[in-house]
């Protein structure tokens, strides 16, 4: 679907949800059942925002389509470049999928 890192504030529709999700984080490192790994994005319901429990974790392949792109300043462009260069550091961590995360239980 998308081969670039999306900006914070980008609003997407995910395949498995019937609501809009705004990206609020990139490459969150998470732990479940003693296994540490990451997703590409974290997001909250748009326009509601984050209320403490409703955090969605997802990857590029979970995005059905993009509704609106977030603000992109010169600093954001610089950061995106640095993130692309440093993505190799994540290779030591497991990349979770939504299905795998759900199957791991509580």
TrEMBL record:
Q: Which InterPro entries does the protein's record reference?
A: DUF4176 (IPR025233)
Q: Name one Pfam family in it.
A: DUF4176
Protein name per its UniProtKB record: DUF4176 domain-containing protein
């Amino acid at each position: 679907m998308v081969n670039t890192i999306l900006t914070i504030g980008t609003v997407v529709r995910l395949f498995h949800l019937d609501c809009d999700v705004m990206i609020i984080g990139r490459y969150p490192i998470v732990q479940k059942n003693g296994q540490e790994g990451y997703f590409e994005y974290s997001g909250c319901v748009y326009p509601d925002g984050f209320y403490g429990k409703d955090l969605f974790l997802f990857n590029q392949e979970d995005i059905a389509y993009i509704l609106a792109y977030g603000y992109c300043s010169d600093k954001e462009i610089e950061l995106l470049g640095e993130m692309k260069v440093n993505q190799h550091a994540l290779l030591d961590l497991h990349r979770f999928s939504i299905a795998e995360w759900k199957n791991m239980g509580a």
